[in-house]
Amino acid sequence: MSTVHREATGLRGALSAVRSAPIADDSELDEIFARALLGSVAEPGDGLLGRAIDVIGAVAAASLLLDAASPAVFVDVLTRAGGSIDPREAESGLDRWSPRLDQGAFTRALEQAARVGARLVLPGDAAWPDGVDELGIHAPLGLWVRGRESALGSSASISLVGARAATGYGEHVTMEASAGLVDRGFTIVSGGAYGIDGMAHRSALASEGTTVAFLAGGVDRFYPMGHETLLARIVATGAVVSELPCGAAPTKWRFLQRNRLIAAASEGTVVLEAGFRSGSLNTAGHAAALGRPLGAVPGPVTSPASAGCHRLLREYDAVCVTDAEQMAELVGGARRRAPSGDRAVPDPASDDRGAFGMASSPDAVRVLDALSTRSPRDVADLARRCGMTPSSVMGVLGGLEAVAEVTRHPLGWLRVKRG
Amino acid sequence: MSTVHREATGLRGALSAVRSAPIADDSELDEIFARALLGSVAEPGDGLLGRAIDVIGAVAAASLLLDAASPAVFVDVLTRAGGSIDPREAESGLDRWSPRLDQGAFTRALEQAARVGARLVLPGDAAWPDGVDELGIHAPLGLWVRGRESALGSSASISLVGARAATGYGEHVTMEASAGLVDRGFTIVSGGAYGIDGMAHRSALASEGTTVAFLAGGVDRFYPMGHETLLARIVATGAVVSELPCGAAPTKWRFLQRNRLIAAASEGTVVLEAGFRSGSLNTAGHAAALGRPLGAVPGPVTSPASAGCHRLLREYDAVCVTDAEQMAELVGGARRRAPSGDRAVPDPASDDRGAFGMASSPDAVRVLDALSTRSPRDVADLARRCGMTPSSVMGVLGGLEAVAEVTRHPLGWLRVKRG
Predict the structure, then answer these.
(1) What is the ipTM of this complex?
(2) CA A295 to CA B179: how far, in whole Å?
(3) Where is this region: Disordered (chains A, B) (predicted)?
(4) How far from B316 is each of A289, B75, B295, B319, CA to CA, in Å?
(5) Among A149, A133, A155, CA closest to A266
(6) How do A294-296 and A143-147 pair as beta strands?
(7) Which among B152, B54, B131 has a CA at the least distance from the CA of B291?
């Protein structure tokens, strides 16, 4: 009996509790366990893990991890299954996943999920949003859902996203747009944040429509706190979703990765109001990279809250949309269009100069997330927290030290306080 | 001695008075006379006359007209010179130009031009704006200029146009844009109208920049009346320009043709505020048809005064521009780009459904211009007024009668009063 199956059997009850349908057989049980487990050790969008699952499946990948396979074995298994992997990559992957294997924490996260009524939706389930599969090796391993699972798989869906620091103008336009799209049968997808996101959800609820909120942390803790009531209302008729297990904290890296799900799970994305460096531009970048229709609502050029929208219109070939009808047309008129070859479509993953909301390189974001300004942390601790190898963390720390973002301390590293 | 030369010699004094440099020789004298004369009998942009001039030159074309050449002779002369022309086209051309030959009126217009200090600038002159030659057979025959002729030939120029019914927002943005472009060395081209145009000129003057206003009627009569002081100030440092002779009234047709000059005489066009069917969209259409950079300033989607700008962004691939720097970049970054093949570029001449400011077909606009709501006019009178053949006028009147735009009267035709 494989390690995976033994562990899965031990958690059969806990795993059954987070699935909406009875578990059919042992192979399904193992698959559920493997995906839940891998989702708890890897950061969202881990491409190496995605490739491994593509080649050998989630169960075999989890097996290697649980059996503490050496990098050589990992490489060997993948190569024999037809994959290709660099030994250093394999070592790096195992080094960042292994320290996070913690059976106690995993079991507690499953129990917490059951307690809040969260279900794990997996590829192949009726409710699985097919659009996220287009993320390829960066697709989520599973999605934790509170509310109506079917809300997630809606065929007609559109993301309405924008700045937290929205203006009255932006909120007004969002309210009208969301209500108008609900009238046209669309599910409204957004990020549950203050400002535009919140208004998009609220207006959809007020119009008795379906709305889905993607969170950057576990669905057991509603974030932001001020939206606890709103998110609870969304659960009642729509869905609150995350690829992270219960208990996971929303880090900046996870917000950026969450944005890829918003873009991928909906047919098209509209940015309603966004500052010049707003995080919503990151969502827009993901939509563009996926070749999904991207719209931007213009506003006064004198309003900094519209500067990001104008940037999308000007630099990224976003379509100018001014009302719900045009937003519906955006999605209906250009379903799954090929990525535009006309102007350069930003690659959110490679963009490290802040154009799409990233202050620095993806790895730097993750290390900075893991650092504290008050408690010094050593490299091993940081590596575990951010899900990277100790040597990668060291490399990043060196770079961050050079630009005075981090500082050494007798007990480890500190993030330098700003402003 | 040709008729043209005899007539030109008789007007040598009057023609010298409207030229900035002494007339070099008889052939130049004839050319000046011929272009001034043809410009007084044909409506702006008359393509048949443009073709005739391309093939046989302005002097020969004027000769045929003055000698009352038959259509057969007209066809023969053009054909022998390598042109090709349909006999019915020739007849139609002669029929619309001949009734307007009026030596007394022509002389009075020249005297009036001299009186107000207007000069006739012709192709080949240093001040001639080369950009208008790209209008091909629709290029102006000459330009009447009050002010500094050299302002007209500025190499760095940009058109700032927009709605008469501008908002405070639109005027504010226009003021900033115009001043910022003057700071960057641009000449500001516009149409002298109320609203955006006026603000563009005013702000350029306030920044001690150069600005050029293209009028739809003769430069002896400033239109609109309320801009008499503004236009006089433009004359002092820039130029007020028209292709129509002194005394010519600004008709709707001429406004639309004037718009092609604004687009053609500048390197690029920016629409700052425009209603959904604003006349500035006509200027934008000309700019796009000429392959010139076209920019649009976004505004609140809740403002009808920005709806035309959003339409340009959405449907016509205009570039979103939010400040002077981006406008300067628009022109500098895309000098004389080829007409976009990406989205359909509107052809202002063929668009008769109002998208670019034309309420009906070009001919209908001209006939409606020539009609009065109170004084009935017969077909011959209308044909002379609008520069079309009597039979074309009859055809158009039939169509307009069918849609109740015109009505028959014992003494001729009346335009039906609206609103």
Answers:
(1) 0.79
(2) 31
(3) 334-358
(4) 24, 40, 10, 9
(5) A155
(6) unpaired
(7) B131
Residue B65 near residue B52, CB atoms below 8 Å? no
Nearest to A298 among B310, B326, B342 (CB): B310
In order, the DSSP letters of B51-80 are HHHHHHHHHHHHHHHHTT--HHHHHHHHHH
CA distance A358 to A350: 10
CA-nearest of A61, A98, A97 to A81 is A61
Strand A143-147 relative to strand A119-121, pairing: antiparallel
**Exposed/middle/buried for B89, CB within 10 Å: 0-12, 13-18, 19+?**
middle
Closest CB from B173, B297, B310 relative to A322: B310
Q: pLDDT of chain B along its 419 residues, tens only?
A: 689 999 999 999 999 999 999 999 999 999 999 999 999 999 999 999 999 999 999 999 999 999 999 999 999 999 999 998 899 999 999 999 999 999 999 999 999 999 999 999 999 999 999 999 999 999 999 999 999 999 998 879 999 999 999 999 999 999 999 999 999 999 999 999 999 999 999 999 999 999 999 999 999 999 999 999 999 999 999 999 999 999 999 998 899 999 999 999 999 999 999 999 999 999 999 999 999 999 999 999 999 999 999 999 999 999 999 999 999 999 985 433 333 433 333 333 333 333 333 345 778 888 888 898 888 999 888 988 888 888 888 888 988 888 888 988 888 899 988 75
Residue B18 in contact with partner chain A when CB distance is under 8 A: no
| A299 near B CB under 8 A | yes
A·B CB contacts under 8 A: 58
Domains of chain B, earliest start first: 3-116 (no CATH), 119-333 (3.40.50.450), 362-415 (1.10.10.10)
Burial classification of residue A23, based on how many CB atoms lie within 10 Å of its CB (0-12 exposed, 13-18 middle, 19 or more buried): middle
**In A42-86, which ranges are continuous DSSP H helix?**
47-66, 71-80
In degrees, rounded to 5, the angle at the alpha carbon of residue A297 between the alpha carbons of residues A242 and B196 is 165
**DSSP element (H, E) containing A40:** helix A26-41
Give dist(CA A167, CA A164) in Å, integer. Answer: 9
**B326 CB near a chain A CB, below 8 Å?**
yes
